[in-house]
Amino acid sequence: MILATIFVLLIFFYSLVSRQLGRTIITGPVVFTMAGILVSIFLPSSLELEGNQKVLLFIAEMGLVLLLFTDASRIKLKDVRSLRRLPARLLSIGMLLTIFLGAVAARVVFPHLSIWEVGILAAILAPTDAGLGQVIVSSPRVPIRIRNALNVEAGLNDGMSVPFLMFFIAMAQPGSGGSSVLTRFLVEQLGFGVLIGIGIGLLGGWLLGWAHRKQWMAESLEQLGLVSLPILAMIFSEPSGASMFIVAFVAGMTSQVGFEAVGGRSVEFTEGWGQLFNFFVFFFLGLMVPGGWHLLSSDLVIYAILSLTLIRMVPVAVALIGTRLKRSTVLFMGWFGPRGLASIVLGLVYIEQEAHLPGEPTIRLAVTITVLLSVCAHGLSALPGIGLYAKSISTLAEDTPELKGSNLE
């Protein structure tokens, strides 16, 4: 109860100054993570949450689902059709190379981990976080093509990481028959996820749009009807084995076909509650950090730095070869691939599998340190990074790849 009270008070006081903090380098995840660390140090009550991993997993998944639905609903389908090449490159070449380099680096830095354990670690840390990148994807100073590419990447790569994660977990357990796991999960989680997401988005969006045009809906309940869609994504994904994250993201994109207002004011309720869940997860992350400080080693820090730099930036650079994007754009997209909520959720998914692998302590610590470093580094560098990037492209002609179809307001 004490932790709940502290968290609610923190939400209240943060809301009072959120606009002012939004003009600084201090982001919401930084505030709540640091608050969690301070509470754990001065009020060691984090053990109250132990044994409730399923509850925490549900909260984290709900937050990510709401966030992904919200972000996807803001992406104009015409922009995705015209700019589809960048997200496709990031989600294919970039994603696979990120997992490969992450595993290779983990094998070098942590030689005691097995080949499947380094795969697990790489899969958990491969996806980027739409929440931590919110400042980037919502800034009008960043070309819309670049924003959409990063947003679509963050929306889909967490769901696409799940099949790899489950495959590596299955292969790490002797006698599990993991040879067919990857194919099965690709079909169920990716294939079914897209189909269910399209179904929920098209049907739900059409019904909302129809009721809106008929003026049958009260304006206040319009938002309540909208928030039902990402929740339905969670519900329908469970029996089918589909990834709820892919379902939610696809549903958010397709719902605007029948209900254009989904990307405007009607999404405020969804975004607000999604932020609440997200802030709780970062608060919980902060609570867990001090308990593992005594296990902190140089190897963990080195891998965290590699994960946020070379392991992310090299695959992005390779994936963008031939796009004629400027070097500053490639560097910008490579750096702003933060690890946050998605990696926390995948880490909890791994723990829920109860694999009990020998390298589990190292995996958990590496994920925690990497996410913590990302929260600070990407949070503090977001506004300065946008400023530097905007300045570097300010003289570009309108027909350059970065600015095609964009509007630098």
Describe the fold and architecture.
The chain is built from 17 helices and no strands. The protein is mainly alpha-helical and 409 residues long. The chain has one domain (54-392): Na+/H+ antiporter like fold (Up-down Bundle), CATH 1.20.1530.20. Helix 3 runs antiparallel to helix 16, helix 5 crosses helix 6 (115-125) and helix 5 (85-109) packs antiparallel against helix 14.
If you consult CATH, what is the topology? Na+/H+ antiporter like fold
Round the mean pLDDT to the nearest integer and report it.
84
**Proportion of helical residues:** over 70%
Number of strands: 0
Q: What is the H-and-E element order? A: HHHHHHHHHHHHHHHHH
- The total number of structural domains is 1
Largest sheet: none
Q: Tell me, briefly, the overall form.
A: globular
Q: Which CATH first-tier class would you pick?
A: Mainly Alpha
Which regions contain 5 or more consecutive residues with pLDDT less than 50? none
Percent in strands: under 5%
Helix segment tally: 17
Rg calculated over all Cα atoms: 21 Å
| CATH architecture title | Up-down Bundle
